């Protein structure tokens, strides 16, 4: 039975294997055999063939995140994993957590399995948390899967085991993890490796080795000057196969170079097009123009010539957002960077050229020498003459991450961030240059917001022009378009001038004019289209308008009078006894009017007398689970009127209620929401007694008592009311809570509970934007007995344990980790217990774990 389960481990999986330079066809075929042996379905994708429909697969195996369908897979919540995921799942006889095998370079510890030796518990917890957050794994024991042991010496038992068994595990100091997490990048662990770590033995003045970096090869400039070479006849150049490439007009290149580039595209099996609607790729120089904006909104690949050359040179697809200088630049640079003078130190080779060009693209000036006029010095480490001089002159010293991330966020980031002033000992930060990606959300918000629509219409007009040009080139005349007005009335001449847009006051003017008068008639002379109206005709028009206003004055006055009446103009019409009512010329109607008016006056007098006899509202009561009204709307309406006559107004809004009636402590939305406003809670028997005795009873004689439920939930209603008064609807102030749409109980119910307690609730469908970290209101004095152990920056997801919910968990965790926060997937009991007790509570049973998702 166990063997059958192993063989059918992947029976519900359909996996796509993406071939690349790191994962060749032979390796893909070996994975194919493994998947089929364990009951799974498999498809192998090799570029440049079109990617299969993404929704067909449950997993995608790829050694890199740099393939065309990666973003689509993330949007569809389909996990993308490294090949190691398959081996690990088979070895464990269960599907491994895909987050730990994510090829996204932002999870820079994704292939790290760490165990800890003899280090302090605080350091141990911090390292484990950081590794897991950045995609790694923790193992409590030394196994063959462990890649790193964190220790202070070689004398620990784990270090001796690794040496004795020759496991090949790297033994590093805790300083390595600390420096990686501070920078947000994975740096070389060699200076931190035991038994003889370089950071402990090297003198401060010892030179630091130069770093080589393959991330910026072919991506150090946004405006390349030489064409890529394609002389290798043995290479099958097919990176652009099936792609329609459009070259934008803002490239600023001559006809000879343009012809050469088009020839390169043809050699790569691509097609050059001038129709943006048919293009898959747009090559342009600047982030401007309708072509750039529209192609970006249509999710086409937009890059510059450097990106195109990189594709052809390497014959492999890469995203234009992967490298900063593969994307079009802006003419003016980052706001605030103009006028800055920046110098570089300790960067060499292509890394230096890359940073020089990036400084220029940001709008600043790059100086080869450091002067007192310089504003910033970007350095790879702190040991150089420039660094010494910068400290003496007061020049700001930062690493390249400040420049790259300012370019990504498109704003000048503060240099006070410790990440930008951290320089690990014995490490040249040139090794991590070029790892920062562009943020599509920032690009969309700043350069091609979705609200503009004029660009798309221009593209469609361009498409019509291209069709007409093609027809003319084939000897055919394009069809002539005829306006609707000309088709309907050929004899009527159409004004040539375009009517300008009018403001609000101009649009309101025709409402007072004769409805038969054309709106544009006062702009046109008799029989003339563009003649300026004469002074006489203008004066006559003004006099006519004044006369119309005077004639409409009685109706306007009556309208204003009716607006002040209860019910307004829309409901009820005019009163029958209104002195301004125009009588209909009908004898029967006139003879009936005196009697009807008298009846109306009597009804009005009775209504006023009845209204005056009603007592004022002393109790605003919210009612939940009153069984006598269930399924009997007539009785409910009748009883509500009787209660109102007693001074009790039944309200639905929890914010307005002063009292809450319920048969016991309930978990209904009405009960939970009302608790946040600290109402007096009475038993529903109070309603029954008030109706039977037909008088307003004292609600304090009917206070709800439910000791059994109070014992079960661990709080008393009296204590919850006192805390609610103190909280003042700020219990969840600053909490970021997401909720699944199809959760049991309904999203709207949980949203209302969160919002009445001061929190923020967002519907999660896999694409919610996570921005604000949790920041408790300092003005609220909430005493938490069972304090929530979560730290600032936690983001909560209300979820069930159904399979349709579980499949959204990896996407939620990924999105939260990407913005530097901690995800918490909890069941609804967490929120309801907090809202009912009016205090922050935490139990481990509230939170779902990966094991819950697997089960």
Automatic annotation (TrEMBL):
Task: Provide ranges: composition bias, Low complexity.
Answer: 477-491
User: Where are the compositionally biased (Polar residues) regions?
Assistant: 492-503
Q: Segment Disordered: which positions?
A: 471-546, 581-614, 773-793
SUPFAM superfamilies according to UniProt = BRCT domain
Where on the tree of life does the source sit, at the highest rank? Eukaryota
UniProt lists compositionally biased (Acidic residues) regions at 594-604
Protein name, entry field = DNA repair protein Rtt107
Query: What is the originating organism of this protein?
Result: Talaromyces proteolyticus
């Amino acid at each position: 039975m166990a063997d059958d389960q192993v063989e059918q481990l992947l029976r519900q999986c359909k996996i796509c294997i993406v071939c690349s330079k790191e994962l060749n066809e032979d390796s893909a075929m070996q994975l194919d055999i493994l998947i089929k042996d364990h009951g799974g379905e498999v498809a192998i994708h090799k570029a440049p063939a079109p990617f299969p429909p993404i929704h067909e697969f449950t997993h995608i195996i790829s050694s890199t995140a740099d393939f065309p369908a990666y973003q689509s897979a993330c949007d569809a919540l389909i996990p993308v994993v490294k090949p190691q995921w398959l081996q690990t799942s088979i070895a464990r006889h269960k599907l491994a957590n895909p987050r730990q095998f994510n090829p996204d370079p932002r999870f820079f510890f994704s292939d790290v399995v760490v165990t800890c030796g003899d280090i302090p518990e605080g350091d141990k917890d911090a390292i484990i948390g950081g590794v897991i957050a950045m995609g790694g794994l923790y193992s409590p024991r030394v196994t063959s899967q462990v890649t790193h042991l964190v220790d202070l010496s070689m004398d620990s038992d784990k270090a001796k085991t690794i040496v004795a068994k020759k496991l090949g595990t790297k033994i590093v100091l805790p300083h390595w993890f600390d420096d990686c997490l501070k920078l947000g990048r994975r740096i070389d662990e060699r200076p931190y490796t035991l038994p003889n770590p370089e950071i402990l033995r090297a003198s401060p003045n010892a030179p630091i080795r130069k770093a080589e970096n393959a991330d910026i090869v072919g991506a150090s400039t946004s405006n390349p000057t030489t064409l890529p070479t394609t002389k290798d006849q043995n290479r099958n150049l097919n990176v652009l196969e099936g792609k329609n490439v459009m070259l934008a007009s803002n490239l600023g290149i001559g006809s000879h170079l343009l012809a050469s580039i088009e020839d390169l595209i043809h050699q790569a099996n691509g097609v050059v097009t001038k129709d943006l609607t048919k293009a898959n790729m747009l090559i342009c120089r600047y982030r401007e123009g309708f072509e750039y904006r529209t192609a970006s909104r249509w999710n086409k690949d937009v890059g510059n010539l450097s990106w195109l050359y990189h594709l052809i040179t390497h014959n492999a697809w890469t995203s234009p957002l992967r490298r900063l200088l593969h994307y079009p630049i802006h003419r003016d640079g980052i706001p605030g960077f103009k006028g800055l003078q920046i110098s570089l130190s300790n960067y060499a080779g292509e890394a230096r050229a890359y940073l020089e060009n990036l400084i220029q693209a940001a709008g600043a000036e790059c100086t080869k020498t450091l002067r007192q006029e310089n504003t910033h010095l970007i350095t790879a480490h702190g040991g150089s003459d420039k660094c010494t001089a910068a400290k003496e002159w007061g020049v700001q010293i930062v690493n390249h991450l400040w420049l790259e991330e300012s370019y990504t966020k498109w704003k000048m980031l503060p240099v006070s961030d410790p990440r930008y002033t951290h320089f690990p000992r014995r490490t040249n930060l040139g090794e991590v240059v070029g790892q920062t990606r562009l943020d599509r959300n920032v690009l969309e918000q700043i350069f091609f917001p979705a609200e503009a629509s004029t660009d798309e219409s221009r593209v469609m007009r361009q498409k019509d022009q291209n069709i007409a040009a093609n027809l003319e080139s084939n000897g055919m005349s394009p069809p002539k378009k005829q306006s609707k007005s000309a088709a309907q009335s050929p004899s009527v001449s159409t004004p040539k001038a375009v009517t300008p847009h009018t403001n609000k006051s101009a649009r309101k003017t025709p409402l007072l004019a004769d409805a038969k008068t054309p709106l544009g008639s006062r702009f046109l002379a008799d029989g003339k289209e563009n003649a300026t109206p004469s002074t006489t005709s203008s004066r006559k028009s003004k006099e006519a308008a004044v006369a119309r206003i005077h004639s409409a004055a009685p109706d306007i006055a009556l309208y204003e009078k009716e607006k002040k009446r209860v019910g307004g103009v829309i409901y009820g019409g005019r009163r029958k006894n209104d002195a301004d009512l125009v009588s209909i010329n009908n004898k029967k109607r006139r003879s009936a009017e005196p009697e009807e008016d008298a009846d109306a006056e009597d009804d009005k007098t009775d209504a006023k007398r009845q209204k005056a006899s009603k007592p004022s509202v002393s109790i605003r009561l919210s009612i939940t689970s009153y069984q006598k009204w269930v399924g009997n709307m007539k009785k409910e309406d009748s009883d509500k009127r009787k209660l109102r006559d007693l001074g009790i107004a039944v309200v639905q809004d929890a914010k307005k209620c002063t009292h809450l009636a319920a048969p016991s402590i309930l978990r209904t939305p009405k009960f939970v929401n009302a608790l946040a406003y600290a109402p007096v809670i009475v038993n529903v028997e109070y309603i029954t007694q008030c109706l039977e005795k037909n008088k307003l009873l004292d609600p304090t004689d009917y206070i709800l008592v439910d000791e059994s439920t109070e014992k079960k939930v661990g709080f008393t209603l009296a204590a919850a009311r006192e805390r609610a008064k103190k909280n003042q609807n700020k219990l969840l102030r600053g909490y970021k809570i997401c909720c699944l749409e199809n959760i049991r109980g309904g999203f709207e119910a949980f949203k209302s509970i969160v919002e009445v307690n001061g929190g923020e609730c967002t519907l999660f469908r896999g694409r919610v934007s996570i921005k604000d970290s949790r920041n408790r209101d300092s003005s609220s004095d909430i005493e938490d007995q069972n304090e929530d152990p979560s730290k600032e920056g936690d983001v909560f997801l209300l979820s069930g344990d159904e399979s349709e919910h579980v499949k959204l968990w990896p996407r939620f965790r990924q999105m939260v980790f990407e913005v530097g926060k901690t995800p918490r997937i909890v069941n609804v009991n967490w929120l309801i217990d907090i809202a009912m007790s009016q205090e922050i509570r935490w139990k481990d049973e509230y939170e779902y774990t990966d094991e819950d998702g697997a089960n």
